[in-house]
Amino acid sequence: MPAVPLSEAVGGPLVRPAPASEHFDAIVIGGGPAGSTCAYHLAARGRAVLLLERECHPRFRVGESVMPYASGLLDAMGLLDEVEDQFVVKRSVETSDSVGGYFRTYFAKLAEGQKKFGFNVERSRFDALLCSHAEGAGATVVEGAEVSGLVFDGARLAGVVYERDGERHEARARFVADASGRAGLVARHFKLRRMNCRIKKVALFQYFEDVVKGVNAADEGDLVIATHEAGWIWCIPVDQNTRSVGAVMAPEELAGADRRQVFDQHLSRAPRIAAALEGATPWFDDLKVESDFCYHSEHLVGPGWFLVGDAGCFVDPVFSGGVFLGMAAACKAAEVMGDILDGRAEDEAIAHFEDFCKTGYDQYFRLVYVFYEQCNGNVECMFRQLFEGRFKPLLQILAGDCWGDENNPIWSELRSDPRWDTFERPFNRVYGCPVYPRPPLACADVMARERP
Ligand SMILES: Cc1cc2nc3c(=O)[nH]c(=O)nc-3n(C[C@H](O)[C@H](O)[C@H](O)COP(=O)(O)OP(=O)(O)OC[C@H]3O[C@@H](n4cnc5c(N)ncnc54)[C@H](O)[C@@H]3O)c2cc1C
After folding, report:
1. pLDDT tens track for 78-123
2. What is the 8-class DSSP label of residue 110?
3. Are 35 and 179 in contact (CB under 8 A)?
4. Ligand 1 pocket: which residues have CB below 6 Å?
5. Which atom of ligand 1 is nearest to the CA of 36?
6. What is the 3-state secondary structure (H, E, C) of 149-190?
7. Which atom from ligand 1 is nearest to the alpha carbon of 308?
8. What is the rounded distance in angstroms from the CA atom of residue 338 to the CA atom of residue 45?
9. Phi, psi at 300, each rounded to 5°
10. Residue 316 in contact with residue 368, Cβ under 8 Å?
11. Nearest to 244 by CA among 265, 217, 273
């Protein structure tokens, strides 16, 4: 049977033969943004890559708001124009409160030379696009292929066992990149995952369609975040007529309660979002729920394996970092694997990968701690009290600058607080933004504000 390009198959079940060769330079587990980015970069370097995805694209995923720095990564993959054509461009973020006050942060004020926009994406289509792009670059993509076992040569991870159509296959490679998201196959195998007891949240979410034109007071394309005394709510325009709306709260809020009632109560505390949804129709029959999504792995790399994206670490969705951080780690993993395959010393290269990822994750975690622990979940407190007068550094961070600027005064301050150390063991901080090599800071106050 001839291979069916994924791009042609989107919209229907994918039927594809198992790959003829079962030995590769790298195997990537999972075809989300992290796995597809990793597979794309390795394949673009001429490496033989097998990407195994358990489901068939397009498949649902939450996490639709994508940081502006991801635009630079998409550009480097030759995908920016296509993403701009197909998805909602996000030029600003509106933050509001429970009494209708709001302010807006514009990405137009990002440093010179940077892309001044991110995206809001329907993940089923976005992830399918990235995965088909990896295939277009030469990766072998097999969907409906569930990795069910790991293959070792001594202590080195040397391949995987996967099931497809009831058949068992074994594939081997010099490296396995685990991008299986929260499933985290490799981290769980080595018992590396540490759940975060301090940031324990649950999210209830729902899509709304047939949004009534003109009722949305936010700027077109705005991600809207509303904070209130018992949590926060996102409202993301995934296309002109559809909004993804989620309420994030402490798990106790939900214990024994009716989910719909709790969701509606939370929504009523976000008047600007509630008003924007008037007349719109809930899409799913039931609310969707995600919980226990804050964790990290103490190690992110080992003999023959790399953890990329949520498979290694996920913090919290409040600053929309998941997709960008996952793609950035995936770029670094592909670079390091490619370099080792080209002859770079493995020990030094994998240490660099781990230190790089920990640098970004640790800083990002600190920002989330500030939000929940120092500002009591009030984003305006962060913007107006804590970081007053440092809006430019804050804006760069909110756009995705987790690696670019060691001297960003906000990062410097947050790093100095040992309460917020994420990793148990010390590590060397490795900077070097995968998107913009030059540190971006320079300007004065740049955050434009609006008040009703
Ligand atoms: C409530 C909530 C809201 C969020 N909102 C945002 C947001 O607004 N913006 C943002 O950037 N991020 C957000 N995130 C985070 C975002 O969803 C993730 O960070 C992102 O999806 C990570 O991408 P990934 O490629 O690492 O993993 P995933 O997207 O989860 O992809 C992993 C893939 O691996 C596959 N897989 C799993 N197990 C196997 C197996 N055994 N064999 C083969 N394949 C397998 C899965 O089917 C899946 O396709 C949110 C998360 C939560 C929980």
Report:
1. 999 999 999 999 999 999 999 989 989 999 999 999 999 999 999 9
2. S
3. yes
4. 29-35, 52-55, 61-66, 146-147, 179-181, 183, 185, 203, 246, 290, 293, 309-311, 314, 317, 320-324, 326
5. 25
6. EEEEECCEEEEEEEEECCEEEEEEEEEEEECCHHHCHHHHHC
7. 26
8. 7
9. -115, 0
10. yes
11. 273
Q: What's the predicted TM-score (pTM) here?
A: 0.94
For residue 203, being part of any structural domain is answered with no
Rounded distance, CA 12 to CA 29, Å? 22
423 Cα to the center of ligand 1, angstroms: 22
Q: What are the tokens at 191? A: 């018992």
**How many structural domains is the chain composed of?**
1
Report the amino acid identity of residue 391.
F
23-78 residue pLDDT tens? 999 999 999 999 999 999 999 999 999 999 999 999 999 999 999 999 999 999 99
Distance (Å, whole) CA 385 – CA 390: 10
CATH number at residue 135: 3.50.50.60
DSSP letter, residue 201:
-
Q: Which amino acid is at 108?
A: A
- Ligand 1 geometric centre to CA of 372 (Å): 23
225 falls within a domain: no
Residue 327 domain-assigned (yes or no):
yes
Is 66 among the domain residues?
A: no
Check if the beta carbon of residue 91 is closer than 8 Å to that of residue 107. yes
Domain ranges, residue 50: 6-61+124-195+298-351
Q: How far is the CA of 61 from the centre of ligand 1 (A)?
A: 7
Choose among 206, 204, 225, 223: nearest CA to 281: 206
Residue 309 CA: which ligand 1 atom is closest?
A: 26
